[in-house]
Amino acid sequence: FVTIQPNVSAFPEPDATWYKNGKEIPSDNPTCKINGSNLSLHEVKKEHAGNYTIVLNNTSLQKNLTVTVIVNMKPRIYENKITENNMPFLQLGSQYSLYCNAFGIPQPEIQWKWKPFG
Fold first, then answer.
1. Which of 3, 40, 42, 103 has its CA 20 to 30 A from that of 32?
2. What letter does residue 63 receive in the DSSP assignment?
3. How far is it, in rounded angstroms, from Cα 19 to Cα 54?
4. Torsion angles phi and psi, residue 87, rounded to 5
């Protein structure tokens, strides 16, 4: 889990309201627990990525702070399976392009390796 703990010092103690991407986080949210001015994200998934803003209010002040949460993701390669039945015919000496569809955070670095048959 991840906890965002802003340093809050005010008198009287301010009311804290948390927002994710501009929408208020409800107090009964099962994966975002609010404890005073602290926000804990449980079972972090890619859906937790975004901008979290705390708005503090008391009788004499209103302040806010925004924190960006980035959730790293393992690289994934999306490919079409090639079998003997759908293998394209390639002519010796011709030029062809190969494509790789990959996703990850941060963006994965793609390296191509070639190994001759035989």
1. 103
2. E
3. 6
4. -75, 125
Provide the residue type at 27 as one letter: S
Q: What sign does the dihedral 15-16-21-23 (CA atoms) show? A: negative
Q: How far apart are CA 45 and CA 75, in angstroms?
A: 15
pLDDT at position 19 over 90: yes
CA atoms of 24 and 103, how far apart (whole Å): 30
Nearest Cα to Cα of residue 57 among 6, 5, 7, 17: 17
Mean pLDDT (whole number) for 40-58? 94
- Residue 17: count other Cβ atoms within 10 Å of its Cβ: 16
DSSP label of 11: S
Helix (H) or strand (E) run with residue 62 in it: strand 62-69
